[in-house]
Amino acid sequence: MTAATIFTPNAMPELVDTAANAGLGNDNLYPEHDSIEDAADNSADDDGSTLEPTQTAAFRKLQKKLRRQVSWAIRDFNMIEDGDVVMVCVSGGKDSYTLLDILLLLKRIAPIHFDIVAVNLDQKQPGYPEDILPAYLNEQGIAHYILEKDTYSIVKSVVPEGKTYCSACSRLRRGSLYGFAKQIGATKIALGHHRDDMLATFFLNLFHGGALKSMPPKLLSDDKQNLLIRPLAYVEEKDIIEYAKLKAFPIIPCNLCGSQTNLQRAIINDMLREWDDAHPQRLASIFKAIQNVAPSQLADRELFDFETLSLDRDNEERLFEGDNIQAGQTQSLADIGLPIAPETQTFNPKFASKPPAEKPTDSRSTAQKIPTINPVI
């Protein structure tokens, strides 16, 4: 495995931002109406001139939304602290490009100091366009490493023919990145998984793994040597798709397995898209549910101590003492001192528009009724 010489980032272009001194975890980081930006957006769109996609009000509104959501996730899960070295894993896909772009914007306005270094793992897939990502990172002046490790041959050798490579590829990639993070002294590893990835993983585990678990926003690796963070945890995939389109990121498709599809995940993703189209708030509600777990209302004996549940009552006289009642003995509620429920058919004028009409009395109703018998033909 080799690593390219780290590139020193150039100064980022100056952006208009009224929250220049606000913190990552401050609710006022992006006020509802950024007067300077909003005024510029409105005037630019109203004059009828042709604008670049990233100069439109729609783009700035979307960018502001993503910055807010990422800053909220960082605040809620304490993802980035003063002095951190954040290693952003960049694959060349829309998610990692968006993550890197938003983190660089937040770095400029954060009240704390942290460094960002982009890392790409070149897995030596045949036909992989190895020049695209370095060219983009150099053009943007972003400090980065390109790791070269032939995990492609390993995956091909261990995965049976006809099976998907995603799981094995992911494990090998993760192991390589974990080791390199320690090598460069990175304190956090930032991954580009978004809200919809987390929901899809939840349902994959639910349907196929028999477990209630997903991708956590923050995770300590099994060897306790690396901290993983997912700053896009609150971001919807459709917003990332739109943002990547407007920014015109040079997307590199994953052709390791010939664009092979992970069928189970693809089915889950289709299900989530159908739900989102038919019920726009359903996915948000499900995501809220995985943040609002009630262990006592589930059945995990390790998560909740059902065995030692006990009553907390005063030692009062009890009605049932075991030998003070005989089989077949019955008592009314009044006999044992309990209140009697009121009659359920009592008319309550509060719930009726008009009082019920009195039924006319008919002397014939007292006569014995003879049932009608239909003859069998």
From TrEMBL:
Catalyzed reactions per annotation: cytidine(32) in tRNA + S-sulfanyl-L-cysteinyl-[cysteine desulfurase] + AH2 + ATP = 2-thiocytidine(32) in tRNA + L-cysteinyl-[cysteine desulfurase] + A + AMP + diphosphate + H(+)
Organism: Psychrobacter halodurans
Binding site for [4Fe-4S] cluster: 166, 169, 257
Oligomeric form and interacting partners: Homodimer.
UniProt-annotated location(s): Cytoplasm
Domain tRNA(Ile)-lysidine/2-thiocytidine synthase N-terminal as annotated: residue spans: 86-248
Region span, Disordered: 31-51, 344-377
Additional record remark: The thiolation reaction likely consists of two steps: a first activation step by ATP to form an adenylated intermediate of the target base of tRNA, and a second nucleophilic substitution step of the sulfur (S) atom supplied by the hydrosulfide attached to the Fe-S cluster.
PANTHER family to which the protein is assigned, alphabetical: AMINOTRAN_5 DOMAIN-CONTAINING PROTEIN, SULFURTRANSFERASE-RELATED
Family: Belongs to the TtcA family.
Compositional bias of kind Acidic residues: 37-49
UniProt keyword annotations, A-Z: 4Fe-4S, ATP-binding, Cytoplasm, Iron, Iron-sulfur, Magnesium, Metal-binding, Nucleotide-binding, RNA-binding, Transferase, tRNA processing, tRNA-binding
One cellular component term from this protein's GO annotations in UniProt: cytoplasm
Official protein name in the record: tRNA-cytidine(32) 2-sulfurtransferase
GO MF: 4 iron, 4 sulfur cluster binding; ATP binding; magnesium ion binding; sulfurtransferase activity; tRNA binding
